[in-house]
Amino acid sequence: MGRVGTQGACGNKKRLEGHLMPGNPKVHRDVALLNELDEEMIFLMFEEGKSISDICIGMGVSKRALDRWIDENDHGAKITRARTLAADKFACELVTIADSVDDANQGKPGYQIKTRQWLAERWDRKTYGTDKAQSVNISIQGLRMEALRHVEVVEQLSTDQMPKLSTE
């Protein structure tokens, strides 16, 4: 369970040996409901690629309660794994959608190629990914102008401190 016997910023006890203190009763009820549900059913919703909003609406709980349930039960890794499976499913659906474009559409081969190329770049970034190295632009003229400004400032500072020789 979460924090037991910890104190909040005002010194009040947030929890006392498993008993919830007053706070947000809706969140407490929602977390209790989530604890009663089959965990696998919840993970399956994430695995199907449902949004958190859709999952919360479907179960009748708040997002805050779902987040708290995930944190309190250390389900973060399971949710991540379920989202990874959902992403894989969506990626495979992309190929199906690209292949189902009407043959009369002249752009069909382009859709198929771009979809497969995108997937290859994501799944095997080392082999098929595009290198996104940072580009560096150096302007020689800009560097020269900056150096001249620096020299002018240094000369001005040095001549202000030394007495000027008069040639008159």
- Rg over CA atoms: 31 Å
Give a quick account of the main beta sheet: strands, pairing sense, barrel closure.
2 strands, antiparallel
Low-confidence stretches: 1-21
What is the CA–CA distance across the termini?
89 Å
Order of helices and strands: EEHHHHHHHH
Trace the largest sheet across and list its strands: 1-2
- Strand content is under 5%
**SS class:** mainly alpha
User: Averaged pLDDT, please?
Assistant: 80
Which labels suit this protein?
two-stranded antiparallel ribbon, mainly alpha, 168 residues
Q: Could you give the topology of this structure?
A:
Elements: E1 15-16, E2 19-20, H1 25-36, H2 39-47, H3 52-59, H4 63-72, H5 76-99, H6 108-123, H7 125-128, H8 140-161
Antiparallel strand pairs: 1-2
Q: What would your notes on this structure say?
A:
The longest helix is centred in the middle third of the chain and has 24 residues, at 76-99. The protein has a domain at 1-85. It is flat and about 80 Å long. Strand 1 (15-16) and strand 2 form a beta hairpin. It is 62% helix and 2% strand. Strands 1-2 form a two-stranded antiparallel sheet. The chain has helices at 25-36, 39-47, 52-59, 63-72, 76-99, 108-123, 125-128, 140-161, and strands at 15-16, 19-20. It is built from 8 helices and 2 strands. It is mainly alpha-helical and 168 residues long.
